[in-house]
Fold this protein.
Amino acid sequence: MTPEELEQLRIESDLRINTKLEDLANRMAESREEFDTHIKQLKETINDIAEAQKAASLEHHKIQQLVQSNARSIEALSMQAAEDRAIWSARHQQMAEAINRLAEIQEAATEERQELRQATIGIANLLSSLDEDRPTVLRRLNSIENKVDRLLQKDEE
């Protein structure tokens, strides 16, 4: 593989990584918007409850029932907000793990590119030292070619 082809592979890998990171960032933003909407709904519900209590001129028993109903609603909404925070936290954790995996993949690709460069340099050195001992040199070249093929297969997997 030529250095240009290696550079092209690196660029394609970087583009795939950037695309995945953008996708994860978009999903995280959507989750945050959902969370903010729930919080806004909670605030609106609490404000509605307060206004209803101020405007109410019901008997004491009816007011108690209304307060109990409102408390249950607030508790349910609070539980929903806690669940939403847990979901957002889990998504954030997943994104962090994905970023770590992408960094590991990129590091492995860098190492494999370095090994490929070393093999290419070895081939170039062997080609430059060809002499009357061709069968030995050809065996070495075949060995290096097999190693390069294995590295490429490993990279494709």
User: Anything to note?
Assistant: The mean pLDDT is 83. DSSP finds three helices and no strands in the chain.
